[in-house]
Amino acid sequence: MKGTVILACDVYDPKTPELCQEWESEETIQNMEKIIQDLGYDVAILSHPSEISSVLSSIPISERKNWIVWNLIEGYHSPNREAYIPALCEYLAVPHTGSSAVVQTLTLDKYKTKVFLKSFGIPTADFWLVDQSGLLPTDHFPLFVKPNGEGSSLGISEKNLIHSEKDWKETTSELLEKYENLLLETYLSGKELTVGVFGNRGKYQVSPIAFVDYPGIVYSDIVKSKESFVESLDFSVPKELSDTLEKYSIKVAELLGSSGYIRLDFKLEKNLPYFLEANATPGFSNIYSTLPLLWEKTGKTYSELLNYCLDLGFEEYQNHNRYQYAKDRNL
């Protein structure tokens, strides 16, 4: 056997979709388990925090380099929720897939990510952070408002498109009951695009770039839900636009310092692309998740994707100095 892969996962429960829309389905977890076993690894599926931390800490120190945790933990509410596994693995000197805790925490905060990237010249629409006061910082309509720290289009419907102060008051009063703060943006009326960036720092490669087609004018939580997933990808992106987005995507990955994989979303206005958000813990279903669909457009298989992501996790463990403290302390 090559080693042991722990699938650390929250498993989607259709009874509580508002809390766990981002979590992977049991079908996806089982499919990943089978494919990773076929790649030559032992696989363990763990989903309880105490179980995960107990298993990781009990791995003999000399064996930890041969284990790897696939980070599928999404949690809910906490701004640190996508960083739980990377931080724990780094502290215990255990390899893991995907980006570090700092990248996970930053990208989960859409506002801070946009502030950071805009300072380096990545184009974004005008944007503001809205807290519990609910004050409208501008009256240049139309605007678009959404939860600042959620993925999978949680909290998004056509009501989030704001045309007046009346729309604003109605929508934000409802959203601020559920979410701590909101991101307000100048509304971009063009098509949405998505792209995957694979690799570790200094060796990034960009997936084919696709328009995201969906019914209606808003990429809502109904479109993105597992029960009614109706988005489609259109790869007929003009070369000039594709070249521009490839350049931006590599720059974003370098600035963030992403590892393994990250999905980036852009939107057009007057045929110019503007950065929307980054997802450092994207879904991995080969049925309804965008990143594997982008990967497979290259002609490579889902199995090759999983194998590549594991290789990148081990490579990061061997080469990145963020693990050095734990390696030294665990000698």
Tally of distinct domains: 3
CATH H-level superfamily of the largest domain: ATP-grasp fold, B domain
Residue-averaged pLDDT: 91
Q: Quickly give the CATH architecture of the largest domain.
A: 2-Layer Sandwich
By CATH reckoning, the class of the largest domain would read Alpha Beta
Question: The CATH topology of the largest domain, please?
Answer: D-amino Acid Aminotransferase, Chain A, domain 1
For the termini, the CA-CA separation is 25 Å
Q: What share of the residues lie within helices?
A: 25-40%
Multimeric organization: single chain
- Helix-strand pattern: EHHEHEHHHEEEHEEEEHEHEEHHH
Radius of gyration, taken over Cα atoms and rounded to an integer in Å = 20 Å
Quick one: overall form? globular
Low-confidence stretches: none
- Sheet having the most strands: 6 strands, antiparallel
Count of individual beta strands: 13
Tally of alpha and pi helices: 12
Distinctive features:
single chain, 331 residues, alpha+beta, D-amino Acid Aminotransferase, Chain A, domain 1, six-stranded antiparallel beta sheet, 12 helices, 13 strands, 20% strand, globular, D-alanine--D-alanine ligase, ATP_grasp_subdomain_1, metal ion binding, Dala_Dala_lig_C
Description of the molecule:
It comes from Leptospira brenneri. Keywords: ATP-binding, Ligase, Nucleotide-binding. InterPro entries: ATP-grasp (IPR011761), ATP_grasp_subdomain_1 (IPR013815), Dala_Dala_lig_C (IPR011095). The chain has 331 residues and is an alpha+beta fold. It has three domains: 96 residues; 139 residues, ATP-grasp fold, B domain (D-amino Acid Aminotransferase, Chain A, domain 1); 60 residues, Dna Ligase, domain 1 (2-Layer Sandwich). Strands 8, 9, 10, 11, 12 and 13 form a six-stranded antiparallel beta sheet that branches. It has a four-stranded antiparallel beta sheet with strand order 4-7-5-6, sandwiched between helices. A hairpin with a 2-residue loop joins strand 12 and strand 13. It starts with a strand and ends with a helix.
